[in-house]
Amino acid sequence: MALLEVExxxxxxxxxxxxxxxxxxxxxxxxxxxxxxxxxGKTTTLRTISGLQHPARGTIKFNGKDITRSxxxxxxxxxICQSPEGRRLFARMTVLDNLRMGAYTRRNxxxxxxxxxxxxxxxxxxxxxxxxxxxxxSGGEQQMCAMGRALMAKPKxxxxxxxxxxxxxxxxxxxFQIVREINAQGTPVLLxxxxxxxxxxxxxxxxxxETGNIVQTGTGKELLASKEVQTxxxxx
Length: 236
Hints:
The chain is an alpha/beta fold and 236 residues long. The chain has helices at 42-49, 72-78, 95-102, 109-122, 124-128, 139-151, 169-184, 196-202, 220-225, 227-233; strands at residues 4-13, 16-26, 31-35, 57-62, 65-66, 80-83, 157-161, 189-192, 205-210, 213-219. The longest helix is centred in the last third of the chain and has 16 residues, at 169-184.
């Protein structure tokens, strides 16, 4: 059974339709990439899964349970957590307090401590910056903090929205290596990313989204080798 099943969802902003019968799934243990140009509907897809938008038609199931009309806080409690585009940190709070906010709904202090240690293993820089105000971090450090905050919610599915946006090439490499490590430790990942090459290199499977429609799907390797994907997204 799929962990996440999105089946034929239509999503509107007012009268404008953003997603047209979109279907995708994420299985246990997978990294699934959703690629496409600006305005294709990638962020709308994540917002809809998170409950921030509700589809006009179609269904979303998580662990076999229908969450189509569930509220965002309930979806987080079920185990779907998102690191949003633009990081959206609490800029005037410290790194430590931002990470603690990720664990806001949790009560088991021993498990929270264990996950905090895991975050520091993945992002040693955050431990060095623990008492620094988040708004004064570099772009790469802010991205690490946003991902760390999402991990502190103990996700059963981690959704990453444009984690490499605006980062220097060397930091992009670091972020995608960490995505691999997070997945290797057992967390499935749904990855929205404009850097199609990097996304497909780490993904087990991928979907190509164009103006709200899934136009192509396959393994990461298959999509990297696709002439259409190479022409449209890989600059070849």
